[in-house]
Amino acid sequence: MSLEGVLARVESVTQWQENLYRHLHSHPELSFQEAETATEVERHLRDAGFEVQRIGGGVVGVLRNAPGPVVLVRADMDALPVLEDTGLAYASTRTMVDAGGMSVPVMHACGHDMHVAAAVGAAALLADARAEWHGTYVALFQPAEENAGGARAMVDAGLVTLVPKPDVCLGQHVLTSPDAGQVGTRSGPMLSTAASIRITVHGSGSHGSMPHLSVDPVVLASAIVLRLQTIVSREVSPFDFAVVTVGSLRAGTSANIIPASATLLVNIRAYDERVRDHLVEAISRIVRAECAASRSPREPDIEVYDTYPLTDNDPEVTATVTAAFLRHFGTERVVADMAPVTASEDFSTIPDAFGTPYTYWGFGGFPAGGPRVPNHNPGFAPVIRPSLRTATEALVVAAMAYLDPVPTPAPSAASGGVGR
């Protein structure tokens, strides 16, 4: 029976699980401020019989169920500083104070509320069906994925010494593609490596009517923006994926004042750590060269932050999970070898710390033929049905591909078998 036995009660968790999702959506919390979410998760795990502990701002539940494989499933908990515009009855109206001390609107604009609800539901199903499997199930709920700090915080807090070492790590994300009700898997690079770079260039201020007495950092910054566009087009092979985006350029306070400095915020993406390193080097080289060409009075300040690792799915684990998905969902609901996603995640920091292979897949949040709103958009609202159930089943199916099944006893002659 095994997998079927675990999923036999999926309908019974649906109502409270959907209510949990709505509650999480209307009560989002910023990175490293997920106190209410963590408490809610902890309550559900304890009620299900998990050993629970807080590690590095996250919650980890361990369910030991006889000797056997150890499977770790990770879900992220944080939300974004976005003003919700979905029109949902359970839309967020919450504001919080961010790390910079500013009051900002908060929304689950990336879908982490669905990740949490699915992972809590999967944990409950496995706990209720312990007679169907042997091994150890680790349910990990991570803070602060959105600023690339949460996984590292848990590792730095001693995660690898505080929980059993997993044989495999699993994760998933709600996406605009594939369709709702489908899952998509991919071997190799699944999500890009990324980093953000804060660049401050220095000039010499002056009256707007006396530009000849200045070193204008606005002109300098503008030249840098244009020159950065040549990195991907002229320094990266057409066969390699790379993105360089200038998301912010700030300088000055008045039309008639040439300021003393300008600050650029740059974001980079790649599917290869080598390409990412080249992007960082090229940006630094161009910035320094433009500063020299402009007679900048001092060296630029260049800070690399919010660095995300490459999510590079293990081929064997991906093949095992994909085969399990195909058996359970059927070919019409599984997109094998889906296109890689250009967004980034810090999920792989956790299995890399353990030295454990992993796979990370996507599941759909929007019906076929309907409108699709991208993650991080104020209107991001994946449909609850069938998305949440699909995500829950996917976690159980993937975990059960590794946990030892408990075989159904063969009927004996005394109890009335085939021989009777």
Low-confidence spans: pLDDT under 50, at least 5 residues?
A: 415-420
Give me the Rg, rounded: 25 Å
Estimated helix fraction: 25-40%
Mean pLDDT: 96
| Strand/helix succession | HHHEEEEEHEHHEEEEEHEEEHEEHEHEHE
Strand content: 25-35%
* Sheet with the most strands, sense and barrel status: 9 strands, mixed
The CATH level-2 architecture of the largest domain is identified as 3-Layer(aba) Sandwich
Secondary structure tally: strands? 19
Describe the global form: elongated
User: What top-tier CATH class of the largest domain fits best?
Assistant: Alpha Beta
State the end-to-end CA separation. 23 Å
| CATH level-four homologous superfamily name of the largest domain | Zn peptidases
The CATH topology of the largest domain is Aminopeptidase
Q: Count helical runs.
A: 11
By helix and strand content, what is the structural category? Answer: alpha+beta
Whole-number total of structural domains: 2
Characterize the structure shown.
With 420 residues, the protein is α+β, with helices and mostly antiparallel strands. The protein folds into two domains: 3-190 and 311-405, Zn peptidases (Aminopeptidase); 193-307, 2-Layer Sandwich (Alpha-Beta Plaits). The chain contains eleven helices and 19 strands. The strands form five sheets. Strands 1, 2, 3, 6, 7, 8, 17, 18 and 19 form a nine-stranded mixed beta sheet that branches. A hairpin with a 2-residue loop joins strand 1 (51-55) and strand 2. Helix 2 runs antiparallel to helix 4 (112-128), helix 4 (112-128) crosses helix 11 (387-400) and helix 7 (217-235) runs antiparallel to helix 8. The radius of gyration is 25 Å and the shape is elongated. The chain starts with a helix and ends in a 15-residue tail after the last strand. The model is unreliable at 415-420 (pLDDT under 50).
